[in-house]
TrEMBL record:
The keyword Nucleotide-binding does not apply. Residues 34-338 form the Aminotransferase class V domain. Residues 1-21 are annotated as: Disordered. Keywords: Aminotransferase, Pyridoxal phosphate, Transferase. GO terms for molecular function: alanine-glyoxylate transaminase activity; L-serine-pyruvate transaminase activity. PANTHER family: ALANINE--GLYOXYLATE AMINOTRANSFERASE, AMINOTRANSFERASE CLASS V. The lineage of its organism: Bacteria, Pseudomonadati, Pseudomonadota, Gammaproteobacteria, Cellvibrionales. This is Alanine--glyoxylate aminotransferase. One of its GO terms (biological process) is glycine biosynthetic process, by transamination of glyoxylate. It comes from Pseudohalioglobus lutimaris.
Length: 393
C-alpha cells in the first residue's frame, strides 16, 4: 500500500493548546537548516535567550529553551532542584499540580500537598500553614495558570511566601507566558517553565525555562547527580552558555528554534502590555457573548484566565457531540474538561494568534448554531450584539 503525503485541514484552534500558529512562524520553520554548532546558529541562540528574558521579564543568565515540550520544562526544574529526601510543598487545584507531585516523588522527595477545589486559585493561607507545619520544606511548587480549569493563582504572593520561608519556588507558566503578566525578577520566582504552543503561538515541542541565581547555586551545590542526563542544566549550559565556543550536548531542533525566534520577535514587536490588553479585550467580548447566549462561566471573574475560558456545559447537552460538530462542520477546535471537570466544562482558548476579534465572533456564531441544533435552551441572536458592544467600547 502506497502512503501519500499528509495535508491537514485549516483548523481554527481555540482549545487549551496548541493555538493557531502565525504564517510568519510557519514561514520561519521552512527556512534552510544549518548546523546546530554553526556560528550563525550560535548567534541566533543568543538572540533567543535575550528574547526569552524579555518574555519572562528577567535578567536570569540561565534562561533558555529546552528542546522538548512543556512537560520536559517541568521535569527540568524538578530534577535539577529536588534531591532525594527533600520536602517540597506542592499546590494542586487542577491536573497539573498532580504532575508536579509525581515529579517530586520520582526525584526521591516528599510532596506535602496543599489542595484547593478545581476552579479555585491556590490558597496562600493554606500554603502559609503548610510552611509552618513543615519548616524543613525547601521548595514550593505551584501552577500560575491552571490549564485544566482556567484559573489564575497569585504568583507574586506565593513566591514571596517561599522566600519568607527560605524556600525556592517552581512555577508552571505554561499557559500564562505572553498572555498575562509574568514578572520573574519582580516576583522573585526561582524556576519557571512554559511552553511554545500556547500564548507564544509557536509550534509545540519547545519549553522555555528560566532559573534564578539562587536556583543556579542550588544546582551547583547538589550532592547527587541530576537523575536526567538530558535535562541536567550544568551540562545543557555548556551548549547554551554565553561563550562563543559551545560544547556539544545534543542536536538542537534547528528549524523549531527558527520558529520560536520568529514568535518571540513578533511578541517584542507587539509589546507585552499590548499583548496582555489584546487577550483581555477578546476574553471580555467572548464572555459577554457566552453569557448573553445563556451560558455561564466556571470560574469567578476575578480569577479567570483571559487566554483560557472555562464554560459550564448546559444540562442535557452532549459534550462530545458539540465538540465533534464544531470540528467537523466548522473546523473549530475547543477543549473538553479534564479530570474532575470532564463532561462538565468546555475550555475555549484565546491564546496568541488565536486571540482575535474574528475568532471570538466565529466561535460564538458556530457554538450558537450547534447548540440550537441540539435543542439547548439558549438565547439566539444575543451573543454577537453583546460581544460587539465590548469591541465597540
Amino acid at each position: 500500500m502506497m502512503t501519500s503525503s499528509f495535508f491537514p485541514p485549516q483548523r481554527t484552534l481555540m482549545g487549551p493548546g496548541p493555538s493557531d500558529v502565525s504564517p510568519r512562524v510557519l514561514g520561519a520553520l521552512s527556512r534552510p537548516t544549518i548546523g546546530h554548532l554553526d556560528p550563525l546558529f550560535v548567534q541566533l541562540m543568543d538572540e533567543i535567550k535575550e528574547l526569552l528574558q524579555y518574555a519572562f521579564q528577567t535578567e536570569n543568565a540561565l534562561t533558555l529553551p529546552i528542546s522538548a515540550p512543556g512537560s520536559a520544562g517541568m521535569e527540568a526544574c524538578f530534577v535539577n532542584l529536588v534531591s532525594p529526601g527533600d520536602t517540597v510543598i506542592v499546590c494542586q487545584n487542577g491536573v497539573f499540580g498532580g504532575r508536579m507531585k509525581e515529579n517530586v516523588e520520582r526525584c526521591g522527595g516528599t510532596a506535602v500537598m496543599v489542595e484547593d477545589a478545581w476552579g479555585e486559585p491556590v490558597s496562600t493561607d493554606k500554603v502559609r500553614a503548610a510552611f509552618a507545619e513543615h519548616p524543613q520544606a525547601s521548595l514550593l511548587a505551584f501552577v500560575h495558570a491552571e490549564t485544566s480549569t482556567g484559573v489564575r493563582s497569585d504568583a507574586q504572593a506565593l513566591c514571596a511566601l517561599a522566600r519568607e520561608n527560605g524556600a525556592l519556588s517552581i512555577v508552571d507558566a505554561v499557559t500564562s507566558l505572553a498572555g498575562i503578566e509574568v514578572k520573574v525578577d519582580a516576583w522573585g520566582a526561582d524556576a519557571v517553565y512554559s511552553g511554545t504552543q500556547k500564548c507564544l503561538s509557536c509550534i509545540p515541542g519547545i519549553s522555555p525555562v528560566t532559573f534564578s541565581q539562587r536556583a543556579v547555586e542550588r544546582i551547583q551545590n547538589r550532592s547527587h547527580k541530576v537523575q536526567s542526563w538530558f535535562l541536567d542544566m550544568q551540562l545543557v549550559m555548556g551548549y547554551w552558555g554565553g561563550s562563543a565556543k559551545r560544547a556539544y550536548h545534543h542536536t538542537a531542533p534547528v528549524n523549531d528554534l527558527y520558529a520560536l525566534h520568529e514568535s518571540l520577535v513578533m511578541l517584542q514587536e507587539e509589546g507585552l502590555e499590548a499583548a496582555f490588553a489584546r487577550h483581555l479585550r477578546n476574553h471580555r467580548a467572548l464572555v459577554a457573548g457566552l453569557e448573553a447566549m445563556g451560558l455561564s462561566m466556571a470560574v469567578a471573574a476575578e480569577h479567570r484566565l483571559p487566554q483560557l475560558n472555562a464554560v459550564n456545559i448546559p444540562a442535557g447537552v452532549d459534550d462530545g457531540a458539540v465538540r465533534a460538530a464544531l470540528l467537523n462542520d466548522y473546523d473549530l477546535e475547543i477543549g473538553a474538561g479534564l479530570g474532575a471537570l470532564a463532561g462538565k466544562t468546555w475550555r475555549i482558548g484565546l491564546m496568541g494568534s488565536a486571540s482575535t476579534e474574528r475568532n471570538v465572533v466565529y466561535c460564538l456564531t458556530a457554538l450558537e448554531a450547534v447548540l440550537s441544533r441540539q435543542g439547548a435552551s439558549i438565547k439566539k441572536g444575543a451573543a454577537l450584539d453583546a460581544a460587539s458592544a465590548v469591541f465597540s467600547a
